[in-house]
Please model this.
Amino acid sequence: MTYSLLSGLRVLEIGSMISAPYCGKLLADAGASVVKIEPPGLGEDARRYGPWPDDVPHPERSGLYLYLNTNKEGITANLDTPTGRAILRELSTKSDVVVHNVPPADMDRLGLDYDVLAGGNPQLVMASISPWGLSGPWRDYKAYDINLAAAGGICEGLGAADREPLTFGTPEVGYFAGMAAASSIVMALLGRETHGGQHIDIAEAETMAGLYNGPEALMAVYEWRVTRRTGHHALDFPYPNCILRCKDGHIFVGSPEGRQWRRLMEIMGNPDWSQEQRFRNRTAMNNLYADEVDGYVEAWLADYTKAELLEIALENRIPLAPVRTYEEVRSDPSLADLFVVIERDDTGPVAYPGTPYRLPAMDASNPRPAPTLGQHNRAILCDELGYSAADLVKLYQTGII
Amino acid sequence: MVELSNSDNKDAEARPGVLNGYRVLDFGWVLAGALPGMVLADMGAEVIKVETRQRLDYMRLGRPIVGDQPDPEQNPMFHNVNRGKLSVTLNIAEPDAVELAKRLAARSDVVIENFSPGVMDRLGLGYEALRAIKPDIIMASISSTGQEGPLRDLRAYAPSIGSLSGLDSTMGYEGGGPLGLKHAFGDICGALHAVFAISSALFHRNRTGRGQYIDVSMLRATVATQGVGLMEQALTGRSLQPRGNYDPTMAPYGNYPCAGEDTWVSIAVKSEAEWRSLVLAMGSPAWADDQRFGSQYRRQRHRRELDALLSRWTALHEPDAITDLLQSHGVAAAPVLGAEERLFHPHFMARGLYSDTEHPALGAEPVFNLMWNLSKTPSNVRRHAPLLGEHNRDVLCGYLGLSEDELAELEERRVVY
Model:
């Protein structure tokens, strides 16, 4: 027998780009019924982010949108209009959860006032995801991924000393806010009988400066670990703890345990340099001589491919890990059952990453593709809310849906 | 010691948490295994950390803060990710300790572990064994690369996950090699997915009476966050390479040098309105009228020249001044903050992101707060990280009904150890 963890729950998502949509995706993939509300016309921003099949841009085929919105239903509503907000209110009375990432300054205008929405549904759980949170002096400051990474402590230690600090190669912060919101929502639902509905405030910057990176900030108080832009090396770890070149690409080489390092040296034939007195302390080796030692190790790595080095790692229980391209990630047989193939009329079959946690009997057998813009307007507005077909036409003609 | 926001943890244990009444038996250690229990404790669950002197949680070790002797009570990192928990020392290499662990599991809702795959089974504490004594138990195993499969036994640390997942493949300067992250992205990502799965499994159990075994791999969790890169590959066949600070929909997009040594401000401009506001905020310099920057398309095409010209302006000002100026014009900007700047940042301080907690070994020490702000039951650091075995008596005598003599005998035999 298969089952879903969250079946029967109704979630409304007003999400764009990553944070609220990933929250909605986690809930939807776990079996909740998630209805996504998008602005009519253009839809949400991820539809214009890409990438697109064969580089042909189209709002229905943006990869980021398609990935983050599987298993959801989609409707359109212009929340800038009273009628659009009335639709939101009507739907929220029939929902367990509302999640959104509308900026705090726009929440009231778009009808996302918790007290109003919970007025008709005191059990409502609403999660507001915003860059800086719903309080504090930066409440209304804007932010995109790099701004959150910069303030959240991601950038300060990434890059070379003589160049600009770096951020993630692709947007990542929103996933952490989405995870925080999804877990908080389910916890609020666990406590709903005792506490009733709740309004949840999740700040994207704090998911980085707190849970993700907080311990590191606090270590600085004790001057325990210093974060500086030292290229591919990190200070104060035993060497090696870095990405190096090999025959066909790059490989992470680590050896936090002494026996791992000794085994690695054995495999390399215990070269003379490894016996030198100045390399006895591997943290000093890392902090003082890393560039020099990189040269010795890379000379050995140059004879081996990433695949060969992975075999060596498995045989010898030493931590070598290929820096894989996305193509290599996709073709890893050990991840074959992570990817689920979903067919959409306009894209054909595409393999998407599925739920990253595994439950033996969870029903993930029939995943649905991301909705087209307004695909479920009739199903939700007519069948559930009781609008007539004529109403639907009028709502469309007047730019409400 | 720094003075952070007003700390008053005296009442913290009494404040209602949304998970009050749930009990978690937590074999998790180091980072990925410790974090889920920390989160659940901050949300009000009673979390019993099972650990042993026989093989200390690595995170307890490290350079001592006070004195020069190694001391398992002095690692502030450990204190951060284990606060709110109770500690019971059970040497689970001993069969009698396994029996005690099983008796605790019988009284728990959730069991968390991140030993190497197969260890819990060998100890007699695998899911089937626990289910036999507590049919609706929810057990979460967290590992680097999963409980099954060809990579199962790979020795992997946080950077390994960055490499294997594709995350590192785009992390670097354009035209250069991958540099790698210096954070435990995979640990945190795996831990957070575990928290979501555990919470959802509790929701399901409450409705159906059914328990669950959850297998969370840091690798899979990290891969799930690679939406842009994986979809690029699936839809165009291209694997992204390092591109520096780059976003396909924005220009300028980067970290720009400011007045002062090694100070930087991040600026990101997406819409035409934001660009016009940036130009206005800079005092409408002549270069901004250049045709090369006349549309978002052109700014993208000429982003290197744009970055160079923008840097000349940012270099004249402090990061905070630029941030406030640009934000007052509706342009996204924020300083690149160092650790100390984050700790004392007015916005984070106003919201209480970090606070002090009294720890018996180190006194007032800073901890980060989870900041899952549920309006009625916000997350909350409920107590300091436990001393090793601090709650042996409370838990083993209080819950399991052992006598003082029995406890003393178990300690003598290093079962409770």
Notes: Chain A has 16 helices and twelve strands. The two ends of chain A are 39 Å apart (CA to CA). Chain A touches chain B through 145 residues (CB under 8 Å).
